[in-house]
Amino acid sequence: MTDAWLYIMSNRKNGTLYVGVTNNIARRAWEHRTGAVKGFTSRYKLTRLVYVERHDTIEAAIQRETTVKSWPRAWKVRLINSVNADWNDLYETLHA
Q: What are the pLDDT tens digits along the chain (96 aa)?
C-alpha cells in the first residue's frame, strides 16, 4: 500500500485553481513551485499548495480527483477554506 494524494495548487487567495493527484506530494509540489514541468501550472504560475488530501490507494485519489474536478469552483474554494482559510502555502508543512 502506498500513499496517494489529491492536491490543489493556486497562485494566490481565491486565484486560479489546479486539481491534481500524485503518489509523491513533496516532489510534485516542488515541480509546480519551480516550473520544472511545463503546462497549465507553470503558465499561470500556480506555485502555492493550498490543499492536500491523503488516500490509501492511487485509485481512490484518482476517483476523488475526478469528483472534485467536476465540482463548481465555489465548492472547491469552500473545500480549501475549510482547512486553509488564509490559503497559506502548505509546501513547508510537508517536511515538518
A: 578 999 999 999 999 999 999 999 999 999 999 999 899 999 999 999 999 999 999 999 999 999 999 999 999 999 999 999 999 999 999 875
For residues 47 and 34, give the distance between their C-alpha atoms in angstroms, rounded to a whole number.
7
Q: Which three cell numbers stand for residue 33?
A: 513551485
Query: Residue 55's domain spans which residues?
Result: 4-95
Determine the residue type at 10.
S
Helix or strand run (H / E) with residue 48: strand 48-55
Residue 41's SS3 state is: helix
Residue with cell 469528483: 67
User: Which CATH number characterizes residue 42's domain?
Assistant: 3.40.1440.10
As for how many domains the chain has, the answer is 1
Q: Which three cell numbers stand for residue 12?
A: 494566490
